[in-house]
Amino acid sequence: MIIEYCDELYPERLRELKKPPSRLHAIGNIEILNNYGIAIVGSRHNTLYGAKMCQKFTKDLVEYDINIISGLAVGIDTIAHETCLKNSGKTIAVLPSGVKNIYPKSNIELARAILENDGVLVTEYDDEVEADSNKFRERNRIVAGMGIGTLVVEAGENSGTNITARNTIEQGKPVFSIPSSLDNKKGITTNKLIKKGCNLVTDVTDILSEFSDIKFEKKQLPKNDIFFDIPEDLLCVYKIIDDNPKDINEISIKTGLAVNEVNYKLMMLEIENKIQELPGQQFVRKQD
Known about the structure:
Blueprint: E1 2-4, E2 23-28, E3 37-41, H1 48-63, E4 67-70, H2 76-86, E5 91-94, H3 108-116, E6 120-123, H4 133-146, E7 149-152, H5 161-170, E8 175-177, H6 188-195, E9 199-200, H7 204-208, H8 235-238, E10 246-247, H9 248-255, H10 259-271, E11 275-278, E12 282-285
Parallel strand pairs: 3-4, 3-7, 4-5, 5-6, 7-8, 8-9
Antiparallel strand pairs: 1-2, 2-6, 10-12, 11-12
């Protein structure tokens, strides 16, 4: 579908850009284009820490019925889109190419999944147009423009993420930045943004509180199944943990997983606030 600048369905926030697209090509659930959304951006070569933080914040934002906007690139963009879908959220993918020339090709299946789950693909380019470096920059202004703010998860010094953050600031919207270790080269941009005055965030409430004029309400999720909101890849470990403390070795034996893999899943469950570590590196299920 082609959405002209003068059409009612044209995203209102894009009208505020200095150079708004004269038209958009969109496939999917165009009804969500004007809903509240947060752009999530970051490195194409993210670290494990970046992946965990992206999953955590994306999941938490979706719980408040906030759309996730990103650029369908590999790395943080992909993790944001996929985590949104896994948690029954709606996501908008802004393409640096035409809709019949998905870039990167490795994400064609992800693009299809977005459409199958009430998301939408958006681009300012005609169907057969191919991606190039200039189009990545142009795409980034739309990613920033579609959202009410931008969350920078992780990015190296010369990352294109800088462009999206700068576009967000120029549009008068807040940039949220997740702090990173000084040893992490992929955290250089996030830490620099914080030094320049962007919002340091450690929890989703740090983002929500910036929008005092918007009343965000957390979704009421079903409680009949205690495993309903546990990511599938963490279930095998979570099911082993109960009210009786268990250590990593015991969990490793019962699941058949290597200790390092168990340790990773335990960290993820702690981030999800589903388990609690006790003295002696023992773990119990966290009570509501």
